[in-house]
Amino acid sequence: MRALLFRFFKLLLWAMAASAALVLVLRWVPPPGSALMVERKIASWIDGRPIDLQRRWRPWAELPDSLKMAVIAGEDQKFASHWGFDVDAIRQAIAHNERGGSLRGASTLSQQVAKNLFLWSGRSWARKGLEAWFTLLIELFWPKQRILEVYLNSVEWGAGVFGAEAAARHHFGIGAPYLSSVQASQLAAVLPNPHRWSASRPDSYVLRRSAWIRQQVRQLGGSGYLARLDPNRPAWLRAALP
Fold first, then answer.
1. Which of 43, 64, 104, 133 places its Cα 20 to 30 Å from the Cα of 121?
2. What is the structure's pLDDT at 80?
3. Structural domain harbouring 65
4. What stretch of H or E contains 77?
């Protein structure tokens, strides 16, 4: 029994070291894809419904500030200051879910990157635990700018549509650098459920939410907020140094 436990912990340590090394490498190397893309492709094979995965990497400098800020305003307004988890939002989500009704999430952008890039869909405790682990690694090794860059190049914006460049071309027929503030806010507005809502054919809900997002962007200080996303310092180092 003791030998079995020793082997288990040894395997666990190797898995932790391998995952840490992978996250560290991806600080500089663009991810070639994501676990969610693989999941969508496998699901299409099982369902017999072919899906064409669309994705093209755009580096930070080519992603428009309007889209960066729209996503922050709509998904994670404390992005620059938290360490991967928004404790207040988690408490509010728990209280809301306990009262019944529709389930409310509280995932930060860091958590969404961890889930989409490395894990599978679902709400199991095992997946949540792994999500927390990868979120901690991402916050430890990546600066906030890198987290948002990977998010914008990996998030799903429709069936088979992944990343800002594919989304801009799919919904508006233009490259990501040319998105207007309205188009960017409409893309951010559908992120809770991009299979239900369309950025290019917005219903009244998407229009209201996109207007709210633009208002929140102004209240956050516009693109000036992005100066808080230091391109060189991970969160722990940013907090430790002046």
1. 64
2. 93
3. 2-240
4. none
